[in-house]
Design goal:
Layout (H helix, E strand, L loop, with lengths): L2 E4 L5 H10 L3 E5 L10 H8 L7 E6 L4 H11 L3 E4 L5 H4 L6 E7 L5 H4 L6 E6 L25 E3 L8 H8 L3 E4 L4 E3 L2 E2 L1 H15 L11
Parallel strand pairs: 1-2, 1-8, 2-3, 3-4, 4-5, 5-6, 6-7, 7-8
Antiparallel strand pairs: 9-10
């Protein structure tokens, strides 16, 4: 099955639900402006009880380098995801698996992306009101000519559009958040189960490298 990351984890029950249904990675948002914000002390209690095989991602938005490194070290994360306006120079400060989120509007500047030295790009939907979790999709065809690091596809994915999204973009992994929620910060059991059921059926047809390999 294609690698899938469930983002916006705020409690152990949702973490376990995601893993039981096939999530390879979990995302913890340490940006205080997010509705799915989690304090690092709370995140540690969850992470300490997770299987060692789960890829743990810390999500940050325009936060200081020292703060990011401190939380990364405290939690022994597998990856850092920079989901704000961080430029290529800022991204070069980190010696770990680095995911740079690109919020897609109506055009794509592939030339600008080439300046980033990152392990993966996560493509999400642009909003001037939020840095993620909007529940809205962008025009996937904008990624048709992209060549570079692995793609993690995000932005309004759910059980109804995941097949079309994968067929169009052919990403190396997918990231889901609001599309499987009951409300911000709380996952919906039925939506989680349906999403992963669809995902398993879609990706049986071809091999996809496991991006979230611990």
């Amino acid at each position: 099955m294609m690698s899938a990351k469930v983002c916006g984890i705020t409690n152990y029950k949702d973490a376990l639900l995601s893993i039981e249904n096939g999530a390879k990675a979990l995302g913890f948002i340490f940006f205080p402006g997010s509705k799915r914000f989690i304090h690092e002390n709370h995140a540690k209690k969850i992470i300490d009880d997770l299987p060692s095989s789960i890829f743990k991602v810390g999500v940050f938005v325009n936060q200081p380098k020292d703060q990011i490194n401190e939380i990364n070290s405290f939690l022994n994360l597998n990856a850092i995801q920079l989901h704000g306006d961080e430029d290529a120079k800022f991204c070069s400060n980190f010696d770990c698996f680095l995911i740079k989120a690109i919020r897609v509007a109506n055009i794509m500047n592939f030339k600008l992306l080439k300046s980033y030295n990152v392990d993966a790009f996560l493509f999400d939907t642009f909003s001037k009101y939020s840095y993620g979790g909007t529940g809205k999709v962008f025009d996937w065809k904008l990624l048709n000519n992209f060549s570079g690091p692995p793609i993690i596809l995000s932005g309004g994915l759910n059980s109804y559009n995941i097949q079309k999204a994968i067929n169009c973009v052919k990403p190396q992994a997918v990231d889901v958040n609001s599309g499987i929620e009951l409300y911000p910060g709380k996952k919906d059991k039925k939506k989680v189960e349906l999403f992963f059921s669809k995902l398993k059926n879609i990706t049986e047809e071809y091999y996809v490298q496991d991006l979230f390999n611990v």
